[in-house]
Specification:
The complex is a heterodimer. Chain A is an all-alpha fold. Chain A has six helices and no strands. In chain A, helix 1 packs antiparallel against helix 6 and helix 3 runs parallel beside helix 5. Chain A starts with a helix and ends with a helix. In chain B, helix 3 runs parallel beside helix 7, helix 7 runs antiparallel to helix 9 and helix 7 runs parallel beside helix 10. The longest helix of chain B is centred in the middle third of the chain and has 30 residues. Classes of the chains: A mainly alpha, B mainly alpha. At the A-B interface, helix 4 and helix 5 of A face helix 7, helix 8, helix 9 and helix 10 of B.
C-alpha cells in the first residue's frame, strides 16, 4: 500500500514537472519563436493560450460526462470524485478562456464582449457547470449529492449540441475555425512556426490539466478517507 | 399499458389535490398577470413596438410562473414523508415522472391560455388569427420546460435553498427552448408565415424528445437517492 502510494506521488510530481517545463516551452514558442500576425500583430499571440484552454475545458466536460455515467452505472465513489474534480477544473479553464477572449476581443473587434454564437455558448457552459458545483455544495446527503450532480453532468452534456445549434442559428460573428478546416490540411492554413507554438501550448495545457486533475482527485480521495476514518472512530 | 394506467392514477391524485387546494394554479396565474403589469411599467411599451416585444415578454412571464409551479411541484410529497410512502407502492418510477410532467404541463398551459389573450388585450395587439399557431410554439416550448423542470425539481428536492438553486440550474439548460420559442414566435408575428418558423419548431421537438427520454430513464435514480 505504502509503496503504491509513494509511486503515485512520484508519478504526480513527474507530471507536474513536465507540465511546468512544457508551459515554459509554450511561452517561449508563443512569445518569441512565432512571428507576430500580419493583421493583428502581437495581440494574436493570445491564440496560443485561447485555443488550448477552450479545448482543455471541453475535454474536462467530456470527462465529467464519462465520470457521471460511470457513477450512475457502478456507484463507485471514485467516479464521482473524478467527475467533480473535472468539473471544477473545467470551470476554471472556461473562465480563463472567456477572460483571454475578451482581452483579445478588445484590440481586434473593439469590444470586450459581443453576443456571438461561440461566445454565448461558452458563457452558458460556464453557467451550467457553476450550477453543477453549487448543486453539489447545497445537498447535504453525500450519495444524493453525487447522484444529482451526475444527472446534471449528463443532462448538461446532452444539452450542449442543442445550445450550440440554437445560438448558431441565432447569430454568428466569431471568425470561423481557421486551422481545423475541412477543405485544407492544418499545416496549409498557418505558418509552420505558429502551428508549432500552438501544438506546444496545447500539449502544455493537456499536461497541466491532467496534473491539476490528478491533484484534485487525490485531495478528493483523502477527503473520503478522512470521512470514513472519522465515521469509524465515531462508532467505537 | 400498465405504465400508462399508473401515470393516469398519479396524475389524478395530483389534479384532485390541486382542485381541492387551488394553491399552485391561482398563485401562478396572479403572478403571471402581475408580471404583465410590471413589464408595462418597466418598458412603457409603445403600441407599434408591442408585437416585436411580445414573444420575449410572454416567455419571461411563462418561465417565471413555470418556475413558481416547479418549486411547488413536489411540495405535497415533501410533507409528512409522503414521498417515501409513494415509493413503497408497487409502481414504475417513470410513471411518477410522467404524471408530474403532465401535471406541471397542465398547470402551465392553463395559465398560458389565459395570459395569451390578456397580453393581446392589455397591449392592444392585432393579429388574433395568429394566436393558435403562436400557442402551438408555446405548447412545444412549455413541454420542454416541464420535461427538464420536473427532473430538476426532483434533483433539488432535498437541497438547501432549493427555490434559489432550481432556476440557477434550470435556466442555462433552457437556453435552446427560450431561443427557439422566442425566435419562432417573433418570426410568426413578423411574417405571418408558419413555414418560416418550422426550423425552430423542429429544434423544440428535438429538445422535447431527447429530454423526455432522458428524464424517463434517469428519474428513477434521482427520486430514490
Amino acid at each position: 500500500m505504502a509503496q503504491a502510494a509513494q509511486n503515485k506521488t512520484r508519478g504526480r510530481k513527474l507530471l507536474g514537472a513536465s507540465a511546468l517545463l512544457s508551459v515554459l516551452a509554450g511561452l517561449y514558442f508563443g512569445l518569441i519563436e512565432a512571428p507576430p500576425d500580419a493583421y493583428q500583430g502581437n495581440a494574436q499571440r493570445i491564440m496560443y493560450l485561447h485555443i488550448p484552454s477552450i479545448l482543455t475545458a471541453y475535454l474536462s466536460f467530456f470527462i465529467v460526462f464519462i465520470g457521471s455515467c460511470l457513477f450512475l452505472w457502478k456507484r463507485e465513489k471514485r467516479d464521482d470524485i473524478l467527475a467533480s474534480s473535472a468539473a471544477e477544473i473545467g470551470v476554471l479553464f472556461t473562465a480563463l478562456t472567456i477572460l483571454e477572449g475578451s482581452i483579445w476581443g478588445k484590440p481586434t473587434w473593439g469590444v470586450w464582449w459581443t453576443w456571438d454564437a461561440r461566445l454565448t455558448l461558452t458563457a452558458i457552459l460556464l453557467l451550467i457547470f457553476i450550477g453543477y458545483l453549487m448543486l453539489r455544495s447545497l445537498i447535504e446527503d453525500e450519495t444524493r449529492a453525487a447522484v444529482c450532480s451526475a444527472v446534471l453532468g449528463i443532462i448538461g452534456f446532452l444539452d450542449i449540441p442543442l445550445i450550440h445549434m440554437s445560438v448558431y442559428w441565432w447569430r454568428t460573428l466569431h471568425q470561423p475555425p481557421s486551422i481545423l478546416r475541412p477543405d485544407k490540411m492544418p499545416w496549409e492554413n498557418i505558418h509552420p512556426s505558429m502551428l508549432i507554438a500552438l501544438a506546444v501550448n496545447f500539449a502544455a495545457f493537456i499536461l497541466l490539466y491532467f496534473y491539476l486533475l490528478s491533484l484534485r482527485f487525490h485531495v478528493g480521495e483523502m477527503e473520503e478517507e478522512a470521512k470514513t476514518r472519522k465515521l469509524y472512530r465515531g462508532s467505537l | 399499458m400498465e405504465l400508462l394506467r399508473q401515470t393516469v392514477w398519479l396524475l389524478r391524485k395530483d389534479l384532485l389535490l390541486e382542485l381541492r387546494r387551488r394553491e399552485s394554479v391561482v398563485a401562478m396565474f396572479f403572478f403571471g398577470t402581475l408580471l404583465l403589469f410590471v413589464f408595462h411599467f418597466a418598458f412603457e411599451i409603445p403600441p407599434d413596438r408591442a408585437a416585436a416585444m411580445a414573444p420575449g415578454l410572454l416567455w419571461l412571464a411563462f418561465i417565471f410562473t413555470g418556475t413558481l409551479g416547479l418549486t411547488q411541484l413536489f411540495q405535497a410529497e415533501r410533507e409528512n414523508h409522503c414521498l417515501e410512502a409513494l415509493l413503497l407502492g408497487p409502481m414504475d418510477r417513470a410513471a411518477l415522472y410522467l404524471a408530474k410532467v403532465s401535471f406541471n404541463l397542465f398547470l402551465m398551459l392553463l395559465v398560458e391560455v389565459i395570459i395569451f389573450p390578456l397580453f393581446w388585450i392589455l397591449f392592444n395587439l392585432a393579429f388574433w388569427e395568429l394566436l393558435p399557431s403562436l400557442f402551438l410554439v408555446a405548447l412545444l416550448g412549455t413541454m420542454g420546460f416541464c420535461v427538464l423542470g420536473t427532473l430538476f425539481s426532483a434533483v433539488t428536492l432535498k437541497a438547501r435553498a432549493r427555490e434559489l438553486l432550481l432556476p440557477l440550474i434550470l435556466f442555462p439548460l433552457m437556453i435552446p427552448v427560450i431561443l427557439a420559442t422566442v425566435r419562432g414566435m417573433e418570426i410568426l408575428l413578423r411574417t405571418g408565415q408558419f413555414e418560416e418558423a418550422v426550423p425552430w419548431l423542429r429544434l423544440l421537438v428535438g429538445f422535447d424528445v431527447i429530454f423526455l427520454t432522458a428524464g424517463f430513464l434517469i428519474f428513477e435514480w434521482v427520486i430514490e437517492a
